[in-house]
Amino acid sequence: MHQLTIAGKAYRSRLLVGTGKYKDFSETRAAIDASGAEIVTVAVRRVNIGQDASQPNLLDAVPPSRFTILPNTAGCYTADDAVRTLRLARELLDGHPLCKLEVLGDPTNLFPNMPETLKAAETLVKEGFQVMVYCADDPIQCKMLEDIGCVAVMPLASLIGSGMGIVNPWNLRLIIDNAKVPIIVDAGVGTASDATIAMELGCDGVLMNTAIAHAKDPVLMASAMKKGIEAGREAFLAGRMARKYYSADPSSPTTGLIGS
């Protein structure tokens, strides 16, 4: 199967994972290993990746030599805050340009503020960042983000941390069918079947955090998500049979039967 390519780099895994909400860095690393993920996203405002030399550094447990670190702007509510946060992250990561942009509009539901997201994306792309962007499942605005120059567009399946799964598959299909960059579902996945459905729809990948970190057994759930992603991708490539309300066609051929 073709690998996932983002900003010119190929990845074997189509599962991207977060690093928040685990009990400690050891559990974080164990879950990441079980997931098979190669891209790991880090909330710069919430996790230490070198901002505080006196505190444990996540990068000691999840080293950039082993994983592609994807700094994100979780907790930012304006374009200016998001841009400042990613400038800091690029310094901390020795000029690493790949980033995840999210500008939130409401602290209760964490839905994206799309005008601020578009504004921040324009600035970051002009400054040489390779922007993967969390956004609403709006086909028009997703295309606008692609046209700005984002290297991946990441519409939500449902609200961050909700575990509600894909609430609007039809919008996702519109986005996928109109895209020339990877479309990665970001937010809302609750279990492995949700990830499988996203991949069966034709998404290029899925990014998740809470679904794994808040499972009763995060490491086992990470393993399940890995399998769900792989199964969904294979099913998409295989091409499912047509849906029929009723069909009298038997599963096995009837010609050539003994006695016929």
TrEMBL record:
Active site feature: K100
Keywords: Cytoplasm, Schiff base, Thiamine biosynthesis, Transferase
E.C. numbers: 2.8.1.10
Biological process according to GO: thiamine diphosphate biosynthetic process
Matching InterPro entries: Aldolase_TIM, Thiazole_synthase_ThiG, ThiG
Binding sites annotated in the UniProt record for 1-deoxy-D-xylulose 5-phosphate: G161, A187, G188, N209, T210
Location in or out of the cell: Cytoplasm
Taxonomy, superkingdom: Bacteria
GO cellular component: cytoplasm
Oligomer status and interactors: Homotetramer. Forms heterodimers with either ThiH or ThiS.
HAMAP family according to UniProt: ThiG (MF_00443)
Primary role: Catalyzes the rearrangement of 1-deoxy-D-xylulose 5-phosphate (DXP) to produce the thiazole phosphate moiety of thiamine. Sulfur is provided by the thiocarboxylate moiety of the carrier protein ThiS. In vitro, sulfur can be provided by H(2)S.
The family this protein is said to belong to: Belongs to the ThiG family.
Protein name per Swiss-Prot or TrEMBL: Thiazole synthase
Taxonomic source organism: Candidatus Dechloromonas phosphorivorans
Lineage: Bacteria, Pseudomonadati, Pseudomonadota, Betaproteobacteria, Rhodocyclales
Gene: thiG
